[in-house]
Amino acid sequence: MDELKGIQYSTPLSSAFFSAQNMDSIQTNIRYQVWLQSGKKHVIGKQSPEELTVIMRSIFLQNSRNQENDILGQVKELNVITINYALKRILSELNQYVAYNKEISQGRQIMEHSVNTSIRGNRQLEQKPW
């Protein structure tokens, strides 16, 4: 468990939270929530383990209570925070990706030539008798 090496000692909570089984559970939940929140339109693959570890480390250091009792409850709480954080980013990026693909699949929209809106030079000089 190198996720917290040099930052914090290994605890039962950190061992449970950064376990391979918990990371797989988070990956599965992220994929399922993206599928649900996208209206059952998009199925994504597993996320990068390195990026997920960075997110989990940040969430752990900011939100862990490190209490000796109720390890499972604390892990579930940290998992919910991690999933919500990742889900917000993934859905935003997914929407951007879909919009980008839609935009490039259409033909180019060529703008019309510009129109001179200046009124300079449109008026005639009136000659006034002195």
Structural features, described:
- The protein is mainly α and 130 residues long.
- The chain has a domain at 12-94.
- Helix content is 57%, strand content 0%.
- The protein contains four helices and no strands.
- It is elongated, with a radius of gyration of 28 Å.
- 11% of the residues are buried.
Intertermini distance: 98 Å
Structural class by secondary-structure content: mainly alpha
For the report, how would you describe the main beta sheet?
none
Radius of gyration: 28 Å
Provide the β-strand percentage band: under 5%
What's the number of helices?
A: 4
Task: Output mean pLDDT.
Answer: 89
Order of helices and strands: HHHH
Number of strands: 0
**Principal-axis shape:** elongated
Helical amount: 55-70%
Uncertain spans: none
Brief descriptors of the model:
130 residues; 57% helix
Topology:
Layout: H1 12-17, H2 20-37, H3 49-63, H4 71-105
Helix pairs in contact: 2-4, 3-4
Question: Short description, anyone?
Answer:
The protein is an all-alpha fold. Helix content is about 55%, strand content about 0%.
